[in-house]
Amino acid sequence: PTRSPLPVKTFTVKPFLFRLLRPLPMPVIAILIGLLTGLAVWAVLDQVQGRMISKIANRELKTQLSLRSREGLIRFDRYVASYAATTRLLANHRRLAEHLDPIVWLPNEPFETRLYRDAKPAWLADSFARYELPTPSHILLLDGTGALREVYESRGQPLPGELTDKIRRQLTWPDGMRPLLVAVGGLPYLVIGDLIEDSEGFPMGTLVLAVPVDADFLTAAQQVIWPERVLVALVTGSTQRIVTSVDPETLPPGTHLKTWRRDYLITSQPLSQQETGGWDLHFTTFVSHASVDRMARHMRTFEWRQRGLTALIFILVFTAVIYLVSARLNRILKRMSRFAHRALGIAQPGFQRGNNQLLLLEDWIQQFTQLVLKARQELSRHYEHEMRETEALKAAIMEASLDSIVTIDGRGRIVDCNPTAERAFGLRRDRDIGQPFAVRSVAASDLPLFDGLLAESHRAQREGREPHVRGELAALRHDGTTMPVELSIVPIEVDDGTFYTLYMHDITERLEAEREIKSLARIANESPNPILRVAEAGRLVFANRASRPLLEAWGCAVGDRLPADWVAEVDQALVDGETHERETVLAGQVYALLFTPIRELGYVNIYGRDITAVRRAEQEARQHQAELVHVCRLSTLGEVATGMAHELNQPLSAIANFANGASRRLQGDLIEPQPLIQAMGQITTQAERASEIIRRLRALVAKQPPIRSAADLNAMVREVCSFVEFDVERLGIALHLEMAPGRILVNVDLVQIEQVLLNLVRNALDALADMPAAERRIAIRTRVTPDEAEVEIEDNGPGIEPTQMRRLFEPFYTTKDSGMGMGLPISRTILDDHDGRIWAESQPGAGTTFHVVLPVIATAERTTDSAT
Ligand code: ADP
To answer: For ligand 1, atom 13, which residue shows the shortest CA distance?
Structure first.
């Protein structure tokens, strides 16, 4: 992927902000954004929260005030209740009982109300002081009829008559003993009565307490120090005027409530009817506005503190969240950029400590996104291109295929075919699509086979096996001729069902080639000579008919192993990689076996040849040759015999002489043993000499079978010289022998080689016959090299003309009257037979040299023998 330049236009929207933030370190940006976000959120929420809080504060204030007012009323009620309890206590007090016990109040008898003013009556217990209650202004004792019998004026004030009336009237109420507020001269009095009973429960009288509800009463009732000044008062409901107040100086009785509303927040609660006996009195609390304001201020401070705390929490939370999110984002983006760098080759953004990576990343992400998009487009383009190419390639392959390709549907109708199929079956794509294929293009006899292959392919595919099925069948060309094809079926499963692609390869040529190969194979089989093929380890893989005698002799058949020594031969051929021949005699027949290795296949082909006849002919030829040599010898014998007979004459005459001499000595009585013994010795010596000459003669004549053996060439030369000794002497020839030292061992037929040498020496003698006797010379030399031994026979005779030279070795060529012309041709045959050579060199008028060369036996052997 290529890297496109950074898109610069994205900077135009926010260049200022970007320039401002870019150099700031990441955490600072996060904190700033957190701060701003926190503030913004707080500002929005504070609108709502502020309203809520002030509403709550107001409600709270109201609640506070109403609570205070109610609390005041409760205290007032409780205070009243404590008086009621004390009254009950006093009414049942022992002292009062003791006081009343002796007194009997008669209803109609006149009496004087007993008045206590200065001293507290004895029947009054100290209960008020004990309960910290101010002593009531008046304490009354009434008899059963309600007549006032005794009265205690604790504060020295006379009992108002109005009060007495009201008390007496109250006692007539059904529940007259309950505390009651009564108005006496405009001032409310608390009146509480209780029944006094004797020990039997008989009513003796009534105790009644009267307490003026004045400032002292109210103060004592409240008994609480409010945080701000709260005043209480009793107000007449209908007139809205103060009846009595806790502070008569500030709130003088008789004043209208209206007067006070400006300075105070006023809360009124009606006292119960039972308590007041129909007087509509209200318990009213006064809280000065100043103190309400103080409370409100107090609330506001609290409210501000709350809001400030909320703002702080918002800012902190948002800052932390944004910082964490940005750090996390940063990490993710870094990882992403690393990945992009690796995958798409996009340069990583220049992350540096202290730079705002988030902003850098933003631009980088834009670039990244563009590149990814581009890469995706490119990839899909590439993919499409590849698809198209593949399609084109497939089509081209199909078009160019030398095989006929036909696609048929599940019912055997042609769906598509390639040009080769069109040509082979005379199909036309524009005409034959939809036509049945098999009926027109498969030979009728092979239709079942075709259907079977289709079914097999379909079955194989269904069972999840390899669905490619192959078979060979005869197809019908458009001209009606058949064409052998190899059919391969590939089923294709598509939504519409199963289709089959048929690949048909024309195998006419292949079948012909196979036939050709088969016929070629018959050549080997029909060959009259044995042909075998052996694999590695000597396993026989093929043997033709002619090999039967060989196999019988070896006792093996195709598939078996050859006998061990032949296996070794086969292995050797494979190792060397060279053809070699070996002869063998099997069942009286001689075979030459040629081992031809085919190393790349690990085979060795053995080509046998029955050479029994050849070998027999050779044998016979050798026999003939031996006989010829013999004839030759005999002819030579004729010539040599004269000399030898002459030579034999010498020892015989010597023997005769010595024998005569000895007999003469014996006849003349000169019997001296010493001379006789000497003569006898001479006779023996001469006889041995004669016998030696005769042995040679016999050897020359004897008919010996051709036998090869190791023989010394030097010894042979000497033996031949001895044969012609007589003639040499007779002709006065200077015979010069120049022999290589030691023995020269050659593997030869001794008689034959001697015959060759004798022939050559005799020819030399013949050539010298016409020379002046003093000039006749023959030189015989032997020479040896590591491989060869050579004998050279040189004469200084007339030599041989070049024209004669060419005919020298022709049979029956001779220039001599008694010559046979067979010496040299036989010599050449013998030397050929010994792997040797013979040739002549001649200078007419100067002499002739004949050379004979033979292979020698190993040098080591020769040198050890040379000592003897
Ligand atoms: P033959 O000796 O019976 O003639 P050869 O085959 O031995 O048969 O010799 C053939 C001929 O070669 C001889 O007749 C002779 O003319 C010639 N020839 C052989 N050896 C010599 C020699 N050393 N010098 C000259 N001529 C030779």
So the answer is: 814
**Fold designation for 401-511:** Beta-Lactamase (3.30.450)
Strands (E), 421-557: 469-476, 482-494, 497-506, 531-534, 540-543
Q: Kindly report the average pLDDT of the chain as a whole number.
A: 84
Please state the rounded mean pLDDT for residues 804-819: 88
* Helix or strand run (H / E) with residue 808: none
850 CA from centroid of ligand 1 (Å) = 11
Nearest to 720 by CA among 652, 791, 784: 791
d(CA 205, CA 187): 27
d(CA 260, CA 267): 12
Distance from the CA of 790 to the center of ligand 1, in angstroms?
20
Give CA separation, 282 vs 181, 236, 238, in Å. Answer: 12, 6, 10
Q: Which amino acid is at 556?
A: C
Ligand 1 centroid vs 707 CA: distance in angstroms? 28
Ligand 1, atom 23, residue with closest C-alpha: 764
Q: Whose CA is nearest to atom 20 of ligand 1?
A: 763
Give 726: exposed, middle or buried? Use CB within 10 Å, 0-12, 13-18, 19+: buried
Q: What pLDDT, on the 0 to 100 scale, is given for residue 791?
A: 96
In the reported structure, the alpha carbon of residue 756 is separated from the centroid of ligand 1 by a whole-number distance in angstroms of 13
Which residue has the least CA distance to atom 21 on ligand 1?
Answer: 763
Q: How many whole angstroms from 846 Cα to the centroid of ligand 1?
A: 15
CA distance 245 to 799: 195
The residues, any chain, with a CB within 8 Å of residue 404's CB and separated by 6 or more, are 417, 418, 420, 421, 424, 425, 485, 502, 503, 504, 505, 506
Of 476, 343, 352, the C-alpha closest to 404 is 476
- Whole-number Å distance between alpha carbons of 485 and 511: 10
**Residue 847 alpha carbon, nearest atom of ligand 1:** 24
Residues framing ligand 1 (Cβ under 6 A):
759, 763-764, 767, 795, 797, 800, 808, 813-816, 819-821, 823-824, 848
Contacts of 439 (CB under 8 A, 6+ apart): 447
How does DSSP assign 640-684, residue by residue? HHHHHHHHHHHHHHHHHHHHHHHHHHHHTT---HHHHHHHHHHHH
The full set of domain ranges for the chain reads 401-511, 534-608, 611-705, 707-868
Closest CA to 432 of 444, 419, 443, 422: 422
- Return the best residue to mutate from 640, 766, 770, 793 for the ligand 1 pocket (most ligand atoms within 8 A of CB): 766
- Taking the centre of ligand 1 as the mean of its atom positions, its distance from the CA of residue 763, in whole angstroms, is 6
From the candidate CATH numbers 3.30.530.20, 3.50.50.60, 2.60.120.200, 3.30.565.10, the one assigned to the domain spanning 707-868: 3.30.565.10
* pTM summary value: 0.37
Cα of 759 to ligand 1 centre, how many Å?
Answer: 9
Q: What pLDDT band is residue 522 in, cutting at 50, 70 and 90? A: confident
Atom of ligand 1 nearest to the CA of 825: 6
Q: Which atom of ligand 1 has the smallest separation from the CA of 763?
A: 20
Kindly tell me the burial class for residue 554, based on how many C-beta atoms sit within 10 Å of its own C-beta (0-12, 13-18, 19 or more). middle
Least Cα distance to 427 among 440, 445, 408, 411 occurs for 440
Q: Which two tokens stand for residue 123?
A: 């029947």
C-alpha of residue 764 to centroid of ligand 1, in Å: 8
Cα–Cα distance, 327 to 20 (Å, whole number): 20
738-796 tens-digit pLDDT: 999 999 999 998 888 988 998 899 899 999 988 898 899 999 999 999 999 999 999 99
Report the alpha-carbon angle 443-446-450, nearest 5: 110
State the burial class of residue 209 (Cβ atoms within 10 Å of its Cβ: 0-12, 13-18, 19+): buried
Cα 168 to Cα 148, 164, 411: the distances in Å are 9, 6, 130
Q: Assess if CATH 1.10.287 describes domain 611-705.
A: yes
